[in-house]
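Revision sheet: structure tokens.
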Amino acid sequence: MSIAVSGNYYGAGSGVDGYAAKFIPAIWSGKLQEKFYPSTCLSEIANSDWAGEIKDQGDKVEIRTVPNITISDYQKGMTLATQVPAAAMIELLIDKGKYFNLVVDDVDAIQSDLRLMDMFSTDAAEQMKISIETMVLDGIVAKLSSATTQSGNASSQNMGNAAGAKSANIALGATGAPVAITKANVLDVIVDTGQVLDEQNAPESNRWVVIPPWMAALIKKSDLKDASLSGDGTSLLRNGRIGSIDRYNLFVNNNLKVTTTDGAFSNVAHILFGCKQAICFASQFTKMETMRAQTTFGNIIRGVQVFGYEVTKADALGRLYAYKG
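Predicted:
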């Protein structure tokens, strides 16, 4: 009877019986090669106060806004006009979802002493976070480019090459005419975006800007030189924060929307900036379960995460359309 054996063999030396060749067994290492993930910042730039109120995909959260109170001139003896404040409602629809569904084969589990289910679950959670953030950042750009944001279309003054609610002369880039950013002007451009928010009376606290890696490199090569000069001497954190400039917290992110070709320009980034009050985001793992597979020998791990996002203050959110000059 012949027995099939899988594995690796040495070649036998001259004059040595082939059966004497050395069999090299496979060794399953208990050490794991580290995996790198893009940094994520969604929890830092969006308001997630409503995350605990969602239960499943299809839920809707009604968000009340603060009404505008009218201030009128007063003259002695006049009859006072009465205002009944009316607050607009913003609907946060939890209408999106992502899932993973994988199987840990019993053979793999036996051959490896790694805790495969924990390892795969951790990787799935990281990949889920990256996938959702990429979708949300892309969706925010789409909302800014349309007149359908629930908070109005004030964002039209926070983008383009005539930005600024009062000045209307700040260049933030437009299709066919993006802003060229170099180490000589990168700080000036960031300060210009701050002026755009100032002209909208946006809060000075909780401001942020999400930049691509090449822009972060230009900042580090600029007159700023190192993160400690920008008010943050700590090392790069997992959320991608690299420091502070002009009241902004800066986040490096590789998930920003990029237009690969725009006429003569290539790899133009849609760089977002604003205040935390500008975006609401709610997300929740609604199901996470393990079970025995029906069609193979192994354990299934699967999970679903539902989420939704909305631009709640368009005048506190803007876009810089730029490329590396």
